[in-house]
């Protein structure tokens, strides 16, 4: 008995089934691609796709101007980042780091320098650095509170004369405006010291950290 006709019909049916399946898959892929393009156009990422080739029944199409959709408005898409809110200046951490080429006011031996911080009615001091002389690392940290009506921090360098009846000797003075700290910004500076005659008395390396 011959089954050739039935085999041909089965193969033809399978081919038609495979063709229909491929058409369905292709249609799904085309739909996904169109949806992705439309979403990108709506978001302003891609220009709308212009038709190309021949317009049916009218011959070649004229080139059309490309149009880019504007970015979305009305929400935070392009909203600038909000600047941090800085409260009033409450205090300052002061790191006295290094003295360089300090004026030598010691008669015998090496100086014993220390720093004195004046802010309003506050008067705080570092330890004396015995026999450290005119070039030294202080590495001392002090904190002062800030009150209304005060505009600057005064820093003085003194030579400790513990056993001298004339008392300690001023080396030089420098000043730091509080306006530079009220913005909440850290400051790292070399400040020039001036003696009582207004002459240069060396330099002082200081870091200021505002507390708000």
TrEMBL record:
Record SMART domains: C2
Pfam families: C2
Residue ranges occupied by any C2 domain in the UniProt entry: 72-191
Highest taxon, organism lineage: Eukaryota
Protein name: C2 domain-containing protein
Organism (species): Allomyces macrogynus (strain ATCC 38327)
């Amino acid at each position: 008995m011959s089954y050739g006709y039935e085999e041909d019909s089965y193969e033809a049916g399978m081919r038609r089934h495979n063709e229909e399946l491929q058409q369905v898959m292709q249609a799904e892929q085309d739909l996904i691609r169109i949806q992705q393009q439309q979403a990108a156009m709506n978001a302003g990422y891609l220009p709308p796709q212009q038709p190309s080739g021949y317009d049916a029944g009218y011959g070649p199409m004229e080139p059309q101007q490309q149009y880019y959709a504007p970015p979305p408005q009305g929400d935070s898409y392009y909203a600038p980042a909000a600047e941090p809110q800085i409260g009033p200046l409450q205090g300052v951490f002061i790191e006295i780091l290094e003295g360089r080429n300090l004026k030598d006011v010691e008669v015998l031996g090496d100086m014993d320098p220390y720093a004195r911080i004046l802010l309003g009615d506050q008067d705080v001091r570092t330890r004396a650095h015995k026999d450290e002389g005119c070039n030294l690392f202080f590495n001392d940290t002090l904190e002062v509170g800030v009150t209304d009506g005060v505009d600057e921090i005064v820093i003085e360098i003194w030579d400790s004369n513990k056993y001298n009846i004339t008392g300690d000797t001023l080396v030089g003075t420098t000043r730091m405006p509080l306006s530079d700290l009220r913005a909440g910004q850290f400051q790292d500076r070399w400040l020039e010291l001036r003696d009582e005659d207004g002459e240069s008395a060396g330099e002082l390396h200081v870091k200021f950290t505002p507390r708000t």
